[in-house]
Amino acid sequence: MPPSSAGFGAPVPPAPPAPVGAPLLGNDQAHGVVSWGGSEYPPAPPAPPAPPGPAHDAGTPADENLRAAGPALCTYCGAVLSPGDIFCGSCGNVNAAAVAPPEAFPPAPPALPEPAWADASAAGAGAAHPEPPVGETSSYSTDSFAPPVAADAPAPVIDLPAPATPVAADSVPEVADDGDETVVVRRTVPVVSFDIEFSTGQTETVSGPTIFGRNPKAPASDAGSVTRVVIQDVTRSVSKTHGEFSIVDGALYYRDLGSANGSELVTSGESQLLEPQQWVELTAGSEVVIGDQRFTVL
Length: 298
What we know:
Distance between the termini: 161 Å
Order of helices and strands: HEEHEEHEEEEEEEEEEE
Structural class: mainly beta
CATH class of the domain at 194-297: Mainly Beta
Shape: elongated
Strand content: 15-25%
CATH architecture of the domain at 194-297: Sandwich
Mean pLDDT: 74
Low-confidence stretches: 1-10, 22-39, 56-60
CATH topology of the domain at 194-297: Tumour Suppressor Smad4
Largest sheet: 6 strands, antiparallel
Number of helices: 3
Protein backbone atom coordinates (compact mmCIF):
# COMPACT_ATOMS: atom_id res chain seq x y z
CA MET A 1 0.00 0.00 0.00
CA PRO A 2 1.54 3.36 -0.98
CA PRO A 3 2.24 5.97 1.68
CA SER A 4 -0.54 8.51 2.43
CA SER A 5 0.06 12.00 1.04
CA ALA A 6 -2.29 13.72 3.56
CA GLY A 7 -0.34 13.60 6.67
CA PHE A 8 2.17 11.60 8.69
CA GLY A 9 5.86 11.27 7.63
CA ALA A 10 6.22 7.46 8.16
CA PRO A 11 3.93 4.99 6.45
CA VAL A 12 1.21 3.49 8.62
CA PRO A 13 1.63 -0.28 9.08
CA PRO A 14 -1.28 -2.42 8.00
CA ALA A 15 -3.84 -3.24 10.71
CA PRO A 16 -3.95 -6.80 11.98
CA PRO A 17 -6.83 -8.91 10.78
CA ALA A 18 -10.00 -8.50 12.87
CA PRO A 19 -10.90 -11.46 15.00
CA VAL A 20 -13.81 -13.60 14.04
CA GLY A 21 -17.11 -12.08 15.28
CA ALA A 22 -15.62 -8.60 15.80
CA PRO A 23 -17.62 -5.65 14.32
CA LEU A 24 -16.40 -4.05 11.16
CA LEU A 25 -14.73 -0.69 11.75
CA GLY A 26 -14.30 2.35 9.54
CA ASN A 27 -11.07 3.33 7.85
CA ASP A 28 -9.89 5.38 10.83
CA GLN A 29 -10.85 2.69 13.32
CA ALA A 30 -9.02 0.13 11.26
CA HIS A 31 -5.80 2.13 11.69
CA GLY A 32 -6.31 2.50 15.43
CA VAL A 33 -7.66 6.11 15.31
CA VAL A 34 -11.24 7.25 16.22
CA SER A 35 -12.49 10.53 14.67
CA TRP A 36 -15.03 12.54 16.81
CA GLY A 37 -16.17 16.06 15.96
CA GLY A 38 -13.12 16.79 13.75
CA SER A 39 -10.50 15.69 16.37
CA GLU A 40 -8.64 12.38 16.41
CA TYR A 41 -7.89 10.42 19.55
CA PRO A 42 -7.21 6.72 20.26
CA PRO A 43 -10.22 4.54 21.16
CA ALA A 44 -11.12 4.04 24.84
CA PRO A 45 -10.06 0.80 26.40
CA PRO A 46 -12.73 -1.87 26.73
CA ALA A 47 -14.82 -1.62 29.89
CA PRO A 48 -14.05 -4.18 32.54
CA PRO A 49 -16.89 -6.52 33.36
CA ALA A 50 -19.14 -5.25 36.16
CA PRO A 51 -18.80 -7.19 39.37
CA PRO A 52 -21.86 -9.12 40.37
CA GLY A 53 -24.00 -7.14 42.86
CA PRO A 54 -26.99 -7.91 45.00
CA ALA A 55 -30.31 -8.31 43.27
CA HIS A 56 -32.65 -5.29 43.18
CA ASP A 57 -34.91 -5.30 46.17
CA ALA A 58 -38.32 -3.61 45.68
CA GLY A 59 -38.33 -2.60 49.34
CA THR A 60 -34.88 -0.96 49.22
CA PRO A 61 -34.62 2.78 48.32
CA ALA A 62 -33.49 3.56 44.77
CA ASP A 63 -30.21 5.22 45.87
CA GLU A 64 -29.25 2.19 47.94
CA ASN A 65 -30.06 -0.15 45.02
CA LEU A 66 -27.86 1.96 42.72
CA ARG A 67 -25.01 1.91 45.20
CA ALA A 68 -25.44 -1.86 45.60
CA ALA A 69 -25.42 -2.36 41.81
CA GLY A 70 -22.13 -0.46 41.38
CA PRO A 71 -21.21 2.56 39.19
CA ALA A 72 -23.10 3.24 35.97
CA LEU A 73 -21.13 2.80 32.71
CA CYS A 74 -21.58 4.45 29.31
CA THR A 75 -23.17 2.00 26.90
CA TYR A 76 -21.02 3.30 24.02
CA CYS A 77 -17.51 3.89 25.35
CA GLY A 78 -17.74 2.19 28.75
CA ALA A 79 -16.67 5.29 30.73
CA VAL A 80 -17.82 5.56 34.34
CA LEU A 81 -20.82 7.92 34.71
CA SER A 82 -21.55 10.08 37.75
CA PRO A 83 -24.95 9.74 39.36
CA GLY A 84 -27.48 11.95 37.54
CA ASP A 85 -25.38 12.39 34.33
CA ILE A 86 -27.54 12.57 31.21
CA PHE A 87 -24.61 12.71 28.74
CA CYS A 88 -21.31 10.82 28.86
CA GLY A 89 -18.40 13.17 29.61
CA SER A 90 -16.07 11.18 27.31
CA CYS A 91 -18.07 10.50 24.15
CA GLY A 92 -21.30 12.52 24.66
CA ASN A 93 -23.54 9.49 24.43
CA VAL A 94 -26.99 9.84 26.05
CA ASN A 95 -27.44 7.97 29.31
CA ALA A 96 -30.75 6.21 28.67
CA ALA A 97 -31.03 5.18 32.32
CA ALA A 98 -31.08 8.85 33.45
CA VAL A 99 -33.80 9.91 30.99
CA ALA A 100 -37.16 8.60 32.25
CA PRO A 101 -40.08 8.57 29.75
CA PRO A 102 -42.76 11.18 30.65
CA GLU A 103 -45.93 9.86 32.13
CA ALA A 104 -49.02 10.11 29.98
CA PHE A 105 -51.00 11.80 32.76
CA PRO A 106 -49.73 13.20 36.07
CA PRO A 107 -51.01 11.41 39.11
CA ALA A 108 -54.14 12.92 40.63
CA PRO A 109 -53.58 14.83 43.88
CA PRO A 110 -54.91 13.17 47.00
CA ALA A 111 -58.43 14.17 48.03
CA LEU A 112 -58.61 16.77 50.78
CA PRO A 113 -60.55 15.91 53.89
CA GLU A 114 -63.91 17.60 54.32
CA PRO A 115 -63.85 20.46 56.89
CA ALA A 116 -65.87 20.12 60.05
CA TRP A 117 -68.28 22.92 59.14
CA ALA A 118 -69.27 21.12 55.92
CA ASP A 119 -70.75 18.23 57.87
CA ALA A 120 -72.71 20.62 60.11
CA SER A 121 -74.03 22.57 57.10
CA ALA A 122 -75.03 19.39 55.31
CA ALA A 123 -76.83 18.13 58.39
CA GLY A 124 -78.71 21.44 58.87
CA ALA A 125 -79.64 21.89 55.20
CA GLY A 126 -80.65 18.30 54.64
CA ALA A 127 -84.25 18.84 55.63
CA ALA A 128 -84.76 22.12 53.72
CA HIS A 129 -82.85 20.98 50.61
CA PRO A 130 -83.22 17.21 50.09
CA GLU A 131 -81.01 15.48 47.59
CA PRO A 132 -82.55 15.24 44.09
CA PRO A 133 -83.63 11.82 42.85
CA VAL A 134 -81.20 9.69 40.92
CA GLY A 135 -81.03 10.74 37.27
CA GLU A 136 -81.95 14.40 37.90
CA THR A 137 -79.56 17.31 37.94
CA SER A 138 -79.53 19.59 40.95
CA SER A 139 -79.26 23.32 40.18
CA TYR A 140 -77.29 25.66 42.37
CA SER A 141 -79.43 27.68 44.74
CA THR A 142 -78.59 30.66 46.90
CA ASP A 143 -81.48 30.10 49.28
CA SER A 144 -79.11 29.05 52.03
CA PHE A 145 -77.30 32.39 51.73
CA ALA A 146 -80.43 34.57 51.72
CA PRO A 147 -81.05 36.63 54.88
CA PRO A 148 -83.87 35.46 57.07
CA VAL A 149 -87.22 37.01 56.19
CA ALA A 150 -89.00 38.56 59.12
CA ALA A 151 -92.58 37.57 59.69
CA ASP A 152 -95.26 40.00 58.57
CA ALA A 153 -95.73 42.51 61.37
CA PRO A 154 -99.32 43.39 62.22
CA ALA A 155 -100.52 46.74 60.94
CA PRO A 156 -100.42 49.47 63.58
CA VAL A 157 -103.75 50.36 65.10
CA ILE A 158 -104.51 54.09 65.01
CA ASP A 159 -107.15 55.42 67.35
CA LEU A 160 -109.26 57.90 65.44
CA PRO A 161 -111.23 60.52 67.33
CA ALA A 162 -114.89 59.88 67.61
CA PRO A 163 -117.04 61.96 65.23
CA ALA A 164 -118.68 65.01 66.70
CA THR A 165 -122.25 64.56 67.70
CA PRO A 166 -124.47 66.69 65.48
CA VAL A 167 -126.45 69.36 67.28
CA ALA A 168 -130.17 68.95 67.01
CA ALA A 169 -132.00 71.80 65.34
CA ASP A 170 -134.42 72.15 68.21
CA SER A 171 -131.55 72.68 70.69
CA VAL A 172 -130.30 75.90 68.98
CA PRO A 173 -131.73 78.95 70.80
CA GLU A 174 -133.88 81.19 68.69
CA VAL A 175 -133.08 84.91 68.37
CA ALA A 176 -135.99 87.29 68.35
CA ASP A 177 -136.42 89.18 65.05
CA ASP A 178 -136.09 92.90 65.58
CA GLY A 179 -138.00 93.59 62.38
CA ASP A 180 -135.50 96.17 61.06
CA GLU A 181 -133.90 95.92 57.63
CA THR A 182 -130.14 95.68 57.12
CA VAL A 183 -128.47 99.02 56.64
CA VAL A 184 -126.56 99.26 53.35
CA VAL A 185 -123.19 100.98 53.76
CA ARG A 186 -122.40 103.31 50.90
CA ARG A 187 -118.71 103.73 50.36
CA THR A 188 -117.50 107.05 49.00
CA VAL A 189 -115.37 106.73 45.91
CA PRO A 190 -112.47 109.19 45.97
CA VAL A 191 -112.95 111.92 43.38
CA VAL A 192 -110.22 112.06 40.74
CA SER A 193 -109.74 115.39 39.00
CA PHE A 194 -107.34 116.88 36.48
CA ASP A 195 -106.40 120.52 35.88
CA ILE A 196 -106.45 121.69 32.26
CA GLU A 197 -104.61 124.89 31.32
CA PHE A 198 -105.74 126.63 28.09
CA SER A 199 -103.61 129.01 26.04
CA THR A 200 -106.26 131.72 26.56
CA GLY A 201 -105.03 131.97 30.16
CA GLN A 202 -107.87 130.14 31.85
CA THR A 203 -107.47 126.89 33.91
CA GLU A 204 -110.37 124.48 34.35
CA THR A 205 -110.71 121.46 36.70
CA VAL A 206 -112.12 118.31 35.13
CA SER A 207 -113.66 115.75 37.51
CA GLY A 208 -116.26 114.19 35.24
CA PRO A 209 -117.81 114.47 31.78
CA THR A 210 -116.91 117.98 30.49
CA ILE A 211 -117.42 119.66 27.09
CA PHE A 212 -115.73 122.86 25.96
CA GLY A 213 -115.91 125.36 23.07
CA ARG A 214 -116.89 128.94 22.30
CA ASN A 215 -120.52 128.10 23.12
CA PRO A 216 -120.74 124.39 24.01
CA LYS A 217 -124.10 122.62 24.05
CA ALA A 218 -124.62 119.09 25.44
CA PRO A 219 -127.28 116.73 24.16
CA ALA A 220 -130.62 117.09 25.91
CA SER A 221 -130.25 113.64 27.50
CA ASP A 222 -126.90 114.57 29.13
CA ALA A 223 -127.58 118.23 29.82
CA GLY A 224 -127.80 117.77 33.57
CA SER A 225 -124.71 115.52 34.01
CA VAL A 226 -122.18 117.24 31.74
CA THR A 227 -120.09 120.24 32.71
CA ARG A 228 -119.79 123.09 30.15
CA VAL A 229 -116.55 125.15 29.79
CA VAL A 230 -116.61 128.26 27.59
CA ILE A 231 -113.33 129.16 25.85
CA GLN A 232 -112.68 132.88 25.27
CA ASP A 233 -111.27 132.67 21.73
CA VAL A 234 -111.15 136.00 19.93
CA THR A 235 -109.82 134.32 16.75
CA ARG A 236 -112.85 132.06 16.64
CA SER A 237 -110.65 129.11 15.55
CA VAL A 238 -112.18 126.99 18.31
CA SER A 239 -115.55 125.51 17.40
CA LYS A 240 -118.68 126.23 19.48
CA THR A 241 -118.65 122.61 20.77
CA HIS A 242 -115.05 121.54 20.12
CA GLY A 243 -114.17 118.60 22.41
CA GLU A 244 -115.03 116.49 25.44
CA PHE A 245 -113.17 115.18 28.55
CA SER A 246 -114.05 112.06 30.56
CA ILE A 247 -112.53 110.16 33.50
CA VAL A 248 -112.57 106.32 33.45
CA ASP A 249 -110.91 104.22 36.20
CA GLY A 250 -108.89 107.23 37.36
CA ALA A 251 -107.50 108.02 33.88
CA LEU A 252 -108.25 111.13 31.76
CA TYR A 253 -109.58 110.65 28.22
CA TYR A 254 -110.31 113.18 25.42
CA ARG A 255 -112.12 113.10 22.05
CA ASP A 256 -112.78 115.64 19.30
CA LEU A 257 -116.52 116.21 18.67
CA GLY A 258 -116.14 116.87 14.92
CA SER A 259 -114.77 120.40 15.15
CA ALA A 260 -113.97 122.47 12.05
CA ASN A 261 -110.20 122.70 12.73
CA GLY A 262 -109.86 119.37 14.53
CA SER A 263 -107.51 118.40 17.39
CA GLU A 264 -103.83 117.43 17.22
CA LEU A 265 -101.97 115.54 19.99
CA VAL A 266 -98.37 116.72 20.36
CA THR A 267 -95.96 114.03 21.56
CA SER A 268 -92.17 114.60 21.68
CA GLY A 269 -92.49 117.52 19.29
CA GLU A 270 -94.54 115.57 16.73
CA SER A 271 -98.23 116.25 16.02
CA GLN A 272 -100.84 113.53 15.49
CA LEU A 273 -104.26 114.47 14.08
CA LEU A 274 -106.97 112.79 16.15
CA GLU A 275 -109.91 111.08 14.50
CA PRO A 276 -113.32 112.61 15.40
CA GLN A 277 -115.19 110.75 18.13
CA GLN A 278 -112.08 108.61 18.99
CA TRP A 279 -111.03 108.57 22.63
CA VAL A 280 -107.34 108.92 23.54
CA GLU A 281 -105.77 108.81 27.00
CA LEU A 282 -104.01 111.93 28.25
CA THR A 283 -101.44 112.07 31.01
CA ALA A 284 -99.69 114.88 32.87
CA GLY A 285 -97.83 117.00 30.32
CA SER A 286 -99.97 115.99 27.35
CA GLU A 287 -100.59 118.89 24.93
CA VAL A 288 -103.48 119.17 22.40
CA VAL A 289 -103.72 121.87 19.65
CA ILE A 290 -107.29 123.17 18.97
CA GLY A 291 -107.34 125.66 16.08
CA ASP A 292 -105.16 128.64 17.03
CA GLN A 293 -105.37 127.65 20.72
CA ARG A 294 -104.09 124.73 22.76
CA PHE A 295 -104.44 123.15 26.21
CA THR A 296 -102.03 121.24 28.49
CA VAL A 297 -102.76 118.64 31.21
CA LEU A 298 -101.16 119.76 34.49
